[in-house]
Amino acid sequence: MASEKLFSRERQTNIFLGSLRGKNRTIPVSFDKLREAAKKKMSKETYAYIAGSAGREVTKKSNRTDFNQWKITPRMLNDVSECNTEVSLFGQRYPVPFLLAPIGVLDMAHPDADLAVAKASAEENVPFVFSSQASVDMEACSSVMGDSPRWFQLYWSTSNDLVESFVRRAELCGCEAIVLTLDTTMLGWRPSDLDLDYLPFLRGRGIAQYTSDPVFRELMNTSLGDADEPPKLTWNSIKALIKMAKNYPGGFWSNLVSEDPRRAVKTFIECYSRPSLTWDDLSFLRSLTDLPILLKGILNTNDARKAIERNMDGIIVSNHGGRQVDGAVSAIEALSDISKEVNGDIPILMDSGIRSGSDMFKAIALGADAVLLGRPYTYALAIAGKQGVQEVIQNYRADFELTMALSGCRSVDEINVDRLQSV
Prior knowledge:
Distance between the termini: 33 Å
CATH class of the largest domain: Alpha Beta
Strand content: 5-15%
Shape: globular
Strand order of the largest sheet: 4-11-10-9-8-7-6-5
Mean pLDDT: 92
Number of strands: 12
Order of helices and strands: HHHHEEEEHEHEHEHHHHHHHEHEHEHEHE
CATH superfamily of the largest domain: Aldolase class I
Largest sheet: 8 strands, parallel
CATH architecture of the largest domain: Alpha-Beta Barrel
Low-confidence stretches: none
Structural class: alpha/beta
Number of domains: 2
Radius of gyration: 21 Å
């Protein structure tokens, strides 16, 4: 918010003087050091799942290198003693132009998982987008967030009844928008996971939104959820069964002898996404809720136009952090043309590759109304739980505000393509 004392200057002062005051930072400021510190905290399976991407990771790399195609041109002698970093989305005012992206299976990074992120985002008043693949259900996360903003990210199930149940729960939890992810109707080819023979969902991880849902539990009782023959007992299968028992609601020992954990995993695998989804299906989702609906995964101008024609309220330019199609266009490369096509008709958000305040600045200059952070806060979570997430939010806020001020902008509205030069 606008203030005589810039948040960024206060944040820098706290960092520089922190050790002298006995308040050491819990996370590195540099993204590269943040990632490396998190890697030391993670199992090899966890790091592969969070850091890995599709194929040879060409798209993931392009998400970063393509930011270098644009250079910021700072303007001098503007009074930037006060800077306003607020943005408005769907009638709501947020203090900074970024949200915390939906990230699944956060318990792999830290045992407090989504709860830690919910608490941190609430304290900073930055929107947290609950993931369908969460480790903690949306009701539990909402209960610790008070009136702070939250959205819900939806994977469209093979069951429309389950889709409706998720949307209804999101409304009751106070979510301010629904984010429909389009680019993961099936998992991309991810060698980092495949080489380790590891998919967390097969251990019952990341399915808390499902096991807490009455419609899903009913599906478990139908033929869809009938458990297969017990797996051949190997050390790996035994460990998987133990993980399922730990992650399923209820008591560990009762779960260990119950079919429910395995039935839940099987039901999830069979119903979590719908490859047959088409544009015509969006009318069903539109009929379920008056909440704003954003389509996540848009990389093409024609798809952006179709979103508007189908009465969607916003889009998120994203390639899922490079995790789905190797060799796909980078998000920042796609953003400019999509922005020109949309021409202000609906808000545009962007993710995939945001690693600094200058990245945020460039994305906004090219037409984004806000961006989403994913891996940075996940690494911070792995290092220091709630405190780590809170610090990374503060760091990105400070970095963005400084970039904005030093470029001569006093508000987010002043950031436009004229502030950039293409290489």
